[in-house]
Amino acid sequence: MTNRGPGEARVSGQKPQSSGSGERRIPDQSASQNASKVTELNSRDMKAPDAAGQNPPVRQNRDHRAKGRIALEALSICATPAILVACTLTNADQTALLSLVVVLASLGVFFAAYESSAPRLRDIMPTVVLAALAAAGRILFAPIPDFKPVSAIAIIAGVVFGRKSGFMVGALAALASNFFFGQGPWTPWQMYAWGLVGYGAGLLAAIPAKAPKRSDNSELCEYGEDRSPCKQPLIERHVVIIYIYGFVSCLMYGFVLNAWSILSFYHAQASGLAGILLVYATALPFDVTHGVATVVFLAALYAPWRRKLK
Question: How far, in Å, are 14, 209, 273 from residue 197 at the CA level?
Fold first, then answer.
């Protein structure tokens, strides 16, 4: 049907009829179209409550699953340091074996969570490539103790692709590079510690920055609807945060590896607090070197790699 003026359109196959009061005209078609639009709008309004009633349960289920995954990840992260502290306080036997089982279980949870998310090939390939680059960088800088790009690359992966990819890059880089340096009971701990470095970067990238306020206490959006400051990550507005995190995360990495070595090899429970402090004091220069190297690699790689990966 096409829009025509009154009297311009006739129904095909019909002839105008006349009556005693004069010629009878066919009703205006625009009125019928308006009526059909009103009917369509009414039908949409009737379907809207049904859709509104169906979407919230689906969204709630997704929210519950996401919260459950985050809780499981948090439990896996906290379980390893908790078992280290428990073994130290109780002076338990078979400390190395018990802690190894816990850290392997934590790694299994993260790998299973990543696999259950059904990542696409376009999501898997950058993670694998970055892990391979981190492993190659560790081998390339092997002559310089603790001057490695692994932590920096894991941080970049966590910032760009999220906490799970950051964890996977750090863990896979440690596993792959140890085929060159040698596998051993330290491998799961290095996978766990480097995975935490990338995981923390993903959490840091998810923190939004506060939007600037106007005089009327309304949020000021400088970048339009999609790039408003309220949606901008905090690290995009303050890049120095990522460098600070890079240095601190390397100290955390050293803390985890030193705690494992104390419980597994040095048996510092017998030597007491003095023995523990001696181990950490001996490892401090290497941990600081690791942190400085990470800041250097982030200064060189973070901006260009992040832009390309985005």
Answer: 81, 22, 27
